[in-house]
């Protein structure tokens, strides 16, 4: 075949694969640490559980430069509009990891002050349980997200056909059937 | 799908209407009165003989000469979700108002719904950097209402865990403080040292953070075998590394220029505002609850109370660094002097039976069941109990009405009160100093908002 | 302790109360004067100010002559020189609780009184900035009152409401 003469200087593949590889190899998180989970998120970025090996140690302070919003901590009623505003300012493609039980479901605090699950405000891709989730759990959730990116569609917008404005009722966004991802060597 | 498309300008208005907090924010000059404007010359201090002259407020300054900007609540340099509204004249700060409540969790209300055993899980998430000390305060208040004694070993275990927690909290402070000032390697060092302590916590209690370890009656589990070696390794490593931090930060000219002489606080101002902890000790007042009103076994160990001189940022940094060393000293004494005995009170009203007996004895099973579903009754009364947290005086005011749940649980959070010093410390400083001021006050928004 | 009783204005009841703290029960009129006398006596710091709603525990133990009301304001003072604490409990009122502010004596009570107003609805006369501090501005109601529910969302499979 003709490619054998090229002395292995070329790498070919489908465009989608290359785009997906580029997207998942440098997902930049927006710093949205709220409470105790933020401390564990910082610890994950530290030296012992290094996030830099995924190209993710830069926590972008401006949401316009970020791809991933890790909602780390409990979201109070006063914070909810701010959360939505930061989410809206992020550019497509964007993902959301809900870290900790308070962000996923309201957690320990089932009361007047805490939004019972951040998925009432923003669509969530991966939920990481724990109170707080240990850094290994957070990394598992990040790797799950990488799997989702690796197998997902590249041209799909999150708000397909829907205008960008705050709804009075939460939007009916249902995720696709979650796939149990096995990360690491098979047992 | 057929909703009308909203234009960008309207969308911004909708979004900012959603995030506007109305009267809680800093108002424009022409919309506010002299009382509020006096934040410019000393914020809340308007006592006679203590404050600056309120007639020195520049009432002539027009509204369009100054700019009100908003820092937060989602901001890289504030310790959590703190929203600071600043009125600036160019680079210099005129007025400041912190707007809090973005992490309000209703913990005091939740505390009225949980029993005394469950209450520690709630209280521990207030100051999430020093969970053991929160639980300690709550448990000691409950024990005072109950009138029970905690065995010696439990007291010393609590003390050792509190001091380990103090070290880990100060390490997080040093990490974030370094990061705020630009020394990002300090962030890595602080978190790296902290992992040693968290590994020990995980070995003892099962969790790294939010431990639920200190409960009314004692502690939840005994220290693991070989704990002396683990803790000695922690002490030696961290003690040696504090000298590395000295090399990195203390003598460094840029660090000193940003911290020395910046935001000084006097002792009278601090006492009037009710600030405690390193913020108060930096002004020269040697007030540390561990020394002045000792609790646990602090009167049996030797340690120094670190006091500053000028009340500026550098003093607060130096106090926290040296408190790490003092805590290591206390922990070494704990290792030597740890008594044998029970790790929790044997009072059957308060303590569940050991897990191994549940399979054997019906009474133990019923006792365990009742204790964990109904909880134990506490006689009616009220108590205010304070301990020294890394941020100041952490107090718990508990009212009991005789049932298994507290009637009123109020936690006096040190950061809540210390944050009132923000507007006083920031006036006249530059924008860059606002970051260092918030950093050295060390607020933890979990306990500010509860 | 005796020096305290001698500086307390007449008519103020002191009791070596509950849990061995010194506790005073002034009326609303005596409140500010009592705090001022404590401050002049060496209690430099006001450590804590909070409100309590006694709707469900109205028959709490109080000394003779103190008229219980639904709301109470509890102030804890600390003397650094004497290493002593004192607690002051003032009965704030039943329907529209109102007490004078301590801001002019202890500026550090600004945030604490705002919190008591926000969560209980207790008004502090002459407070410089009595607005909500923890709840959003448009929030209606005062969450820590006993007739305000926890706001619990029902959760599947968990009927048990908690300890009795």
Describe the overall structure:
The complex is a heterotrimer of chains A (187), B (450) and C (164). Chain A has one domain: Rossmann fold (3-Layer(aba) Sandwich), CATH 3.40.50.12280. Helices cover 28% and strands 8% of the residues of chain A. Chain A has five helices and four strands, in the order αβαβαβαβα. Chain A has a four-stranded parallel β-sheet with strand order 1-2-3-4. In chain A, helix 2 links the parallel strand 1 and strand 2. In chain B, helix 4 runs antiparallel to helix 5 and helix 7 runs antiparallel to helix 8. In chain B, 47% of the residues lie in helices and 11% in strands. Chain B is globular. With 450 residues, chain B is mainly α. Chain C has a single domain, classed as 2-Layer Sandwich (Beta Polymerase, domain 2). With 164 residues, chain C is an alpha/beta fold. In chain C, 40% of the residues are buried. Classes of the chains: A alpha/beta (187), B mainly alpha (450), C alpha/beta (164). Chains in contact: A-B, A-C, B-C. Chains B and C meet through helix 3, helix 10, strand 6, strand 7 and strand 8 of B and strand 3, strand 4 and helix 3 of C.
CATH topology of chain C, by name, is: Beta Polymerase, domain 2
- Give me the CATH superfamily of chain C: NADH:ubiquinone oxidoreductase Nqo5 subunit
CATH topology of chain A: Rossmann fold
- Specify the CATH class of chain A: Alpha Beta
Low-confidence runs of at least 5 consecutive residues of chain C? 1-11, 15-20
Largest sheet of chain C, in brief, is: 5 strands, mixed
Shape of chain C: globular
Average residue pLDDT of chain C: 79
């Amino acid at each position: 075949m003709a490619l054998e003469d090229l002395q292995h200087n070329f790498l070919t593949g489908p465009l989608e694969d290359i785009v997906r590889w580029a997207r998942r190899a440098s997902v930049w998180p927006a710093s949205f640490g709220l409470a105790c989970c933020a401390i564990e998120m910082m610890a994950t970025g530290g030296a012992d559980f290094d996030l830099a090996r995924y190209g993710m140690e830069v926590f972008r302070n401006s949401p316009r430069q970020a791809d991933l919003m890790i909602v780390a901590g409990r979201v109070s009623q006063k914070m909810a509009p701010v959360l939505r505003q930061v989410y809206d300012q992020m550019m497509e493609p964007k993902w959301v990891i809900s870290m900790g039980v308070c962000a996923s479901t309201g957690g320990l605090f089932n009361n007047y002050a805490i939004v019972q699950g951040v998925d009432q405000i923003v669509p969530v891709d991966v939920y990481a349980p724990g109170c707080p989730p240990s850094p290994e759990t957070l990394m598992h959730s990040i790797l799950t997200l990488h799997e989702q990116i690796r197998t997902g569609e590249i041209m799909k917008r999150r708000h397909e056909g829907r205008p960008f404005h705050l709804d009075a009722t939460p939007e009916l966004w249902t995720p696709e059937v979650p796939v149990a991802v096995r990360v690491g060597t098979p047992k | 799908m057929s909703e009308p498309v909203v234009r960008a300008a309207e969308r911004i208005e909708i979004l900012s209407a959603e995030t506007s907090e109305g009267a809680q924010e800093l108002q424009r000059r022409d919309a506010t009165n002299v009382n509020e404007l006096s934040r410019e010359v000393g914020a809340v201090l308007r006592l006679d003989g203590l404050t600056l002259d309120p007639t020195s407020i520049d009432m002539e300054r027009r509204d369009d000469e100054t700019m009100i900007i908003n820092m937060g609540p989602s901001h890289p340099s504030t310790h959590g979700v703190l929203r600071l509204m600043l009125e600036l004249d160019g680079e210099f700060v005129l007025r400041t108002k912190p707007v809090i409540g973005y992490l309000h969790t209703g913990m005091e209300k939740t505390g009225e719904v949980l029993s005394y055993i469950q209450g520690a899980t709630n209280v521990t998430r207030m100051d999430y950097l020093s969970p053991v000390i929160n639980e300690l305060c709550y448990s000691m208040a409950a024990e005072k209402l109950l009138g029970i004694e905690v065995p010696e070993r439990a007291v010393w275990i609590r003390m050792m865990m509190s001091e380990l927690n103090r070290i880990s909290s100060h390490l997080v402070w040093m990490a974030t403080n370094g990061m705020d000032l630009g020394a990002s390697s300090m962030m890595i060092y602080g978190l790296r040292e902290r992992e040693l302590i968290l590994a020990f916590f995980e070995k003892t209690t099962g969790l790294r953070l939010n431990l639920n370890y200190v409960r009314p009656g004692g502690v939840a589990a005994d220290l693991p075998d070989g704990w002396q070696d683990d803790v000695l390794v922690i002490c030696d490593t961290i003690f040696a590394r504090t000298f590395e931090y000295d090399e990195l930060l203390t003598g460094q000219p840029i660090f000193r220029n940003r911290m020395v002489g910046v935001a000084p606080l006097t002792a009278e101002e601090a006492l009037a505002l009710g600030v405690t902890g390193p913020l108060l000790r930096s002004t020269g007042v040697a007030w540390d609850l561990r020394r002045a009103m000792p609790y646990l076994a602090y009167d049996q160990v030797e340690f120094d109370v670190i006091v500053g001189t000028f009340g500026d940022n550098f003093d607060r940094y130096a106090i926290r660094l040296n408190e790490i060393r003092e805590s290591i000293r206390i922990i070494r004494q704990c290792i030597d002097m740890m008594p044998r005995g029970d790790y929790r009170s044997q009072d059957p009203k308060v303590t569940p039976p050991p897990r191994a007996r549940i399979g054997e004895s019906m009474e133990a099973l019923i006792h365990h069941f009742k204790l964990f579903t109904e909880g134990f009754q506490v006689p009616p009364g009220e108590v205010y109990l304070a301990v020294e947290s890394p941020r100041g005086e952490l107090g718990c005011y508990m009212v009991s009405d005789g049932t298994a749940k507290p009637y009123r649980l109020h936690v006096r959070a040190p950061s809540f009160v210390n944050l009132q010093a923000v507007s006083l410390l920031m006036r006249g400083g530059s924008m860059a100093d606002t970051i260092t001021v918030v950093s050295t006050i060390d607020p933890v928004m979990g306990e500010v908002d509860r | 302790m005796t020096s305290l009783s001698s500086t307390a204005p007449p008519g103020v009841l002191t009791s070596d109360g509950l849990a061995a703290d010194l506790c005073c029960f002034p009326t609303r009129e005596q409140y500010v004067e009592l705090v001022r006398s404590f401050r002049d006596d060496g209690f430099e710091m006001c450590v804590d100010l909070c409100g309590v709603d006694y709707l469900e525990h109205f028959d709490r133990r109080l000394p003779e002559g103190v008229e219980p009301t639904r709301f109470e304001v509890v102030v804890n003072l600390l003397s650094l020189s004497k290493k002593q604490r004192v607690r002051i409990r003032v009965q704030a009122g039943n329907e529209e609780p109102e007490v004078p502010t301590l801001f002019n004596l202890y500026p550090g009570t600004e945030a604490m009184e705002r919190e008591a107003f926000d969560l209980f609805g207790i008004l502090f006369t002459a407070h410089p900035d009595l607005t909500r501090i923890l709840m959003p501005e448009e929030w209606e109601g005062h969450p820590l009152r006993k007739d305000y529910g926890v706001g619990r969302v029902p959760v599947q499979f968990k009927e048990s409401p908690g300890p009795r």
